[in-house]
Amino acid sequence: MTSLLKLARLIDRLNTFIAEKISWALMVAVLVCVGSALASYFFKAGSNAWYELQWYLYAAMFLFSAPYTLRRNEHVRIDVITHRFSKRTQVWIDIFGFIFFLLPMAILILYLSLPYALESIRSQEMSNNAGGLIVWPAKLMIPVGFFLLALQGVSELVKRFAFLRGLIDASEFEKASATPEEEIAAIRDANLDKIKAIQSE
């Protein structure tokens, strides 16, 4: 179990690192959206490539942030029911959900989407829209994203079993207890740090 916990923490660090990097995609998407809108309005110079780039960025944020959301225990759940149970019962519910719902879903989508992405890479598929982008990076994000989600599911499963055996505290996987005000402040501070980093370059 000690080795599995080390693996779980490695997966946690990997998905945290990816989520922190992909968070920049939001700023890029906003800049692309604003630039595209201004160019279209003032210069009548719209481009399908810019529109598709926005879709790619949003897809990357969704797919590569989902594992981090799971790690933080921020995914949608029926807390109004489960909070009435003991912590051990809640953990068993999580284990049931991971084994019978999350992991099968993630593995199935990974299995079905990988050939789809590989064929797109092989054919160097291009967008059907005039001036559009290559398609395979967007299609490749699907199996990669669900592979990372499956990995995070394994990590969460390991941590739940470790908790049941008394090896770790529930704080390692419980939902962050920040208030909405604290979350807004954290987002604001993170954005200010990004702006300062850009200005210093």
UniProtKB/TrEMBL annotation:
Membrane topology of this protein: Multi-pass membrane protein
Keyword rRNA processing: no
Tripartite ATP-independent periplasmic transporters DctQ component domain span: 32-161
Location(s) in or outside the cell: Cell inner membrane
Keywords: Cell inner membrane, Cell membrane, Membrane, Transmembrane, Transmembrane helix, Transport
Coiled coil: none
Cross-referenced Pfam families: DctQ
Subunit structure: The complex comprises the extracytoplasmic solute receptor protein and the two transmembrane proteins.
Purpose: Part of the tripartite ATP-independent periplasmic (TRAP) transport system.
Family recorded in the similarity comment: Belongs to the TRAP transporter small permease family.
Name this protein carries in UniProt: TRAP transporter small permease protein
Protein source organism: Undibacterium cyanobacteriorum
